[in-house]
Prior knowledge:
Layout (H helix, E strand, L loop, with lengths): L5 H11 L10 H14 L4 H9 L2 H8 L14 H9 L5 H20 L3 H4 L2 H9 L6 H8 L4 H13 L14 H7 L7
Helix pairs in contact: 1-4, 2-3, 2-10, 3-6, 3-11, 4-5, 5-6, 6-9, 6-10
Amino acid sequence: MTARSVAEVVALYDAWANDPYDETVTQLDHALQTAALARRASASPELVAAALLHDVGHLLELAMGHRFDPSDECDRAHEARGAAFLTHLFPTTVTLPIALHVEAKRYRVATDSHYANTLSAGSRASLFRQGGGHSPDEAITFLALAGAPEAIELRGWDDDGKVEGLTIEPFDTYLELLESVARPVLSR
């Protein structure tokens, strides 16, 4: 399943983004907070779009009937599913950071001794399912990937975008941005 229009992506958010995230916020709140942090950092439009859409794979899981279960030991690879869903609609400057944001967490755990302590309970639990911190070889391989620096940036916003009750701009304030970075033929 791949997105053919921004409207299709928006419909997925309309249908599923009010479900709880594995934190104290909804999927929508987390997406909007992450995107707001990217905007505040003057990120490129593509990276703001990636921040907004980075967990779209979770929404696809919800649409397929998979509810979050903290006792589930299986990693559903939401980052790969989300990037694949968006790959025909958005350029790699959007999809690569999405595809790599979990690996960025694993990298940061391996290279920053304090980072793991800053993760939310949900992120610590998913880290175990996602393979834990990188080995030294995995870290070197990750850094060599196109999109790795942007994924590391996205990861920081992702980690900070979990504040309960925070007032932020609504999803529709990002529609023009999404349309502007979407591939023209497919975005309408």
